[in-house]
Amino acid sequence: GESVGLHLPTLSVQEGDNSIINCAYSNSASDYFIWYKQESGKGPQFIIDIRSNMDKRQGQRVTVLLNKTVKHLSLQIAATQPGDSAVYFCAENSGGGADGLTFGKGTHLIIQP
Amino acid sequence: DAGITQSPRYKITETGRQVTLMCHQTWSHSYMFWYRQDLGHGLRLIYYSAAADITDKGEVPDGYVVSRSKTENFPLTLESATRSQTSVYFCASSRQGGSTGELFFGEGSRLTVL
Fold this sequence. Notes:
The complex is a heterodimer.
Chain A: E1 4-5, E2 10-14, E3 19-25, E4 32-38, E5 45-51, E6 56-58, E7 62-67, E8 72-77, E9 86-93, E10 101-103, E11 107-112
Parallel strand pairs in A: 2-11
Antiparallel strand pairs in A: 1-3, 3-8, 4-5, 4-9, 6-7, 7-8, 9-10, 9-11
Chain B: E1 4-7, E2 10-13, E3 19-25, E4 31-38, E5 42-51, E6 54-57, E7 64-66, E8 76-78, E9 87-94, E10 104-105, E11 109-113
Parallel strand pairs in B: 2-11
Antiparallel strand pairs in B: 1-3, 3-8, 4-5, 4-9, 5-6, 7-8, 9-10, 9-11
């Protein structure tokens, strides 16, 4: 099976609330992690990345947290907006080469008005 | 700023036919990738290329052929399409290689094999 997984396939949140999307990985050698957002009918778009020498990285309204002890990655979206509705994928560098990016199956984030 | 474009966006074909999906990028990125996306499997790498005339197999290469005669183009060919190849195909490009830097994805090509 895939080493990158997600705890919940669907997450429903109220508009304005914070969203937290979780991801577990199994390869302790992975040293680079990325979150992608995929809107319906479009290709995935880069959101934020983090390297294993960090445990937190912030972007605009998004924060990625990395807990290497339990091999867990999370994406936090502040003040969720309707435009945040999408499928979110985490990915890890598990092979070291150019092809070494493994994607999780994705979490569908639904925003309730 | 055209970025990365795929064609056709939608294609219906029959089992046994040859199909080519085109991918063109305007950034002169060294790396290009083809992924397929299926429900329950997420994105799986078919083939990738580190530079012109250099291609390598990914996780699921069987039944596919690629070429990269020019840096900007990376066509994917299904030589004899099968129903199991019904999927959404995404092309991507990257400056650094997919495992160390951001991938830029195209809009996808939805292929149905009857």
